[in-house]
Design goal:
heterodimer; A: 137 residues; alpha/beta; Rossmann fold; five-stranded parallel beta sheet; 39% helix; B: 586 residues; mainly alpha; TIM Barrel; four-stranded parallel beta sheet; two-stranded parallel ribbon; 50% helix
Amino acid sequence: MSEERKIRVLVAKPGLDGHERGARVIAYGLRDEGFEVVYTGLRQTPDQIAAAALQEDVDVLGLSILSGAHLSLTRKVVERLKEHGADDILVLVGGIIPEKDIPVLKEIGVGEVFTSGASIPMIAEYIRSRIQPNGDR
Amino acid sequence: MAGTQEKLEKVRQAEKEWREKILEPRVKRFNLPKSPTNFYTPAGRDGFDFLEKVGFPGQYPFTAGNNPFDFWRAFAEDAARQGHRPDWGGGGSVGKYGGFGTASDYRDYLLRMQRIGRTGGPNMAFDLATQCGYDSDSPEAEGEVGRVGVAVDSLRDFEIIYEAYTTGDTAMDKVASNFTINAPAAVIIAMYAALAEKRGIPLASLRGTPQNDILKEFIARGTYIYPPRPSLRLFRDILVFCTEHMPKLNVTSIGGYHIREAGATRTQDLAFSMANAAAYLQAGIDAGLEVDSFAPMFTFNAFGGSMEIYREIAFQRAARRMYARMLKERFGAKNPRSMLIRQPATAHIGCSSTTLQRPLNNLARTVVGGLAAGMSGGKPLCFPPFDEPLGLGHSLEAVQLSLDATRILIHEAKVSDVNDPWAGSYMMESLTDEIEEGAWAEFDKIEKMGGAVAAIENGTMQKAIAKSAYEKQKRIERQEEFVVGVNCFTDENEIEVSVNRVVDEPYDEERMGSAEDRQKADLARLKRERNNRSVAKALSTLEKHAADEAVALMPDILECVKAEATLQEICDVLRGVFGEAQPVRI
């Protein structure tokens, strides 16, 4: 292996929620942290997101949800990933998530939940602790 | 005049000496790269013309305020003596922003609110499916029905909601209605009009405010459907209809607020909002309307957004002056009312200035916003309630503290006893000029590009604010900007202060859980019961007319609504003709 493969991240906005600031900031920030980042733009269905994650061959999928529909949307995305045998992708959730829902999200299969006040280095560090740059998870 | 120049020269000389002898040694003594404070003098205000730059409250260029005093101020003392609570959602104006579940869930909520004195008109939050032009039975709506607002699929839903507004002081034409709706605004306005017709209420007596600011959806809020150009055409069609039939409707509520919350700087916020306003005004002119016949129907959703009190006050002054100048000089308005930025609040802080960490601190933050509002031509509103960032649902306690803070600023601090208290301040006039000049420069760039629509199509505005949002995040992470309890003063010696929170209208889990199914069942019944032939006929006329840019579509949309076509059926016809907007990848 001559060149180290960068960790690849897909930042996605599932559902109809239009609050895009967080997703954009995370996309820029993780790019500056040295990750390869793709941002889907608004209003993606769980199918579209799973397809994009596979197509882009990502290690990490970050879902940004501020509408309150995080449980049903995350569940669907995780199911789609499983259907495609891509449940090794690390799924993260960010947004306005009530504390009581965090353990539920983790049970669904989410690695970590980042809410207001989380910093980009904090998220980057978490990703690095879970994924090796050569893609080993 | 020579005397003035001489005096200014003296000040300049004195300032130079002060810098050399007082300021710089002190900066050196503390080993700083530069002074952490500013001091403004008349030397920087050479040629300041009070009448041109400030003027009197209620007079062009409105820097000092829209009015010498507002309606609420006239009766503030009476309200205090009588314990009158219009600020709580009482009275004949508009109630608290809300909405959830099915149409009947929301109706029941409004009736409960009326029983506790919140008799204002409905201030409707719609669910995301409705905002994006999908019916509750659409696959796109799954999981979203009734969640961030009420689900509205057809005229029947409007009939149900307005069962809470039938007689006396709460008849639908005795209260103002707000609709936070943009892409499908034409359909919602048509529902409101159709319902009034059914009840025999003249459309001209209806008061209210649809948000109807589609351009900022592309920049900031994200609930667009069609591409920008046909979206602006729909704006024109609403404007033409309302100018003729619903003159008391505030036809748009142009958002500076959302743009700032999405990350825009102060300058970007002002420039982009003005560019959007210019596009709407031009749409009216191009439709053959006379500017003073419709510009007085325009409102703004409130500019505001940060904690920087001096600059936010200056911002409001600059915004008023800039808009007034644009209307008078560029659009040839003669009616002073056309030139006003009418907004429900002036310089309140944005919800993004509140923190999840140590949330009671948000009360202190909103008092700063309230002060800025009170000193910039508005009611000193301490918004939002401190528990805003904890999730949906303000507690009774938080709302009480928020209302009381405003009352304290009015009655104890007497913040609202002086108009434009900073007028003539070297600092304030300097900041006001700086903000206005910056915004005009940015505005001119957009105009050269072809205006707001072009700047949205090529992604300029979206990219600019995404970048600004990221820059701000970086400044916070590098501790170049401080947010107390978030990136500073976070060690274990700081204590968490909490108060009891009782939510007056907790989301009924059971109702919320079954809302989607109940709303879908109602929709299915509608589709069985209505005359599908007249629906098809109305939709086909709409489709034909939509293809002709010259036709104003409101009458056709009204016919569709009256035939009980659904919101999505109407939007789908327009999707077919106009296409759909694509998300911008950054």
